[in-house]
Design goal:
7 helices, globular, about 25% helix, about 300 residues, alpha/beta, single chain, Rossmann fold
Length: about 300
């Protein structure tokens, strides 16, 4: 079975909303997460590693439902928190909110999952798309705060650190010093889109401009690190086939897109599965097949690198 196809595990999609504490009870119970969550999990009995997926700028977690279900079908619990609905350039709040969610996981996650499903909290990976990729890297690098749990793997999905080189959003993550990310041996995967640095039209800037995009993030990664650059696909092509509402419709207008979203979404999901299997589950055959071109991928990639 290819990692680009749906896996063997039946999945369920859970929407978890924290209850609002009353005026005289400000603390949330352990079972209530700090922010709304969308969770894709196997519904079959078992114990599964956990992946946290941080959404892109001004995007809704519902837009990632097909991607996280694809990953979950291969035996992972995928958690997508809604960190905000409106935000300015500063990502400080998102970094602290992500740290709060990680702190909640050991006591609260098991209470919102199916009773037969157990999370392997000691096998936690963090990922992020676009600005969410910057947030994931910032937390892994201990900028502003630290994670209460060990992060075992880090993934940037077309990560972005601002509008352009010299115009990074605070706190800046990129230093422009090769191999400068001190991740203490944490394995890292960076996925880039070929169209991300291109403008859709004259009215909107590129979503992942040169100087602050996937190339720069990978350049600063230390070993072990993997990099895939996908041709002919856009910055938002890993989202659901249909994204509704005003923001959902705008995702088709703001970025240069490929012919359809499904190929990029299946590629991103499959590479993430292969990467997590390599570094959380202990077998790297799937990842090596993709690197060597021996697994039929749903997209063409112009560059692959591993160190």
């Amino acid at each position: 079975m290819s990692v680009f196809d749906d896996g063997d595990y039946p999945t369920v999609l859970l929407k978890i909303e924290p209850k609002r504490a009353c005026a005289d009870e400000r603390k949330l119970r352990n079972s209530e997460p700090p922010t709304p969550l969308l969770i894709a999990t196997p519904s079959k009995e078992g114990e599964f590693p956990v992946l946290l997926l941080i959404h892109g700028y001004l995007l809704y977690i519902d837009f990632y439902s097909q991607l996280i279900q694809h990953i979950a079908s291969h035996g992972f619990i995928v958690i997508a928190p809604q960190l905000y609905t409106i935000a300015g350039p500063d990502t400080t709040g998102e970094i602290h909110n992500t740290a709060a969610i990680i702190k909640w996981l050991p006591t609260g996650l098991k209470d919102v999952l199916p009773s037969s499903v157990l999370p392997k909290i000691d096998k936690l990976a963090i990922s992020g798309h676009s600005r969410g990729g910057k947030v994931a890297f910032a937390l892994a690098l201990n900028k502003l705060t630290t994670s209460s749990l060990k992060i075992s793997a880090l993934i940037g999905i077309d990560p972005v650190d601002g509008m352009d080189k010299g115009k990074q959003t605070p706190p800046a993550v990129l230093s422009y010093v090769p191999k400068s990310f001190n991740l203490e041996g944490m394995p890292t995967l960076v996925i880039g889109s070929g169209y991300g640095e291109m403008k859709k039209n004259a009215f909107f800037p590129a979503c992942a401009p040169k100087g602050v995009n996937h190339e720069n993030f990978y350049d600063e990664c230390q070993n072990p690190a993997w990099y895939f650059l996908v041709e002919d696909q856009g910055h938002l092509d890993m989202l659901d086939d249909e994204t509704k509402g005003v923001r959902g419709k705008s995702t088709y207008c703001l970025a240069k897109n490929g012919k359809s979203r499904e190929p990029m979404r299946r590629f991103v999901g499959g590479v993430i599965v292969a990467f997590l299997n390599a570094y959380l589950q202990g077998y790297d055959s799937q990842l090596l097949l993709i690197k060597d071109g021996n697994d039929a991928t749903p997209v063409s990639f112009s560059k692959v690198d591993h160190r």
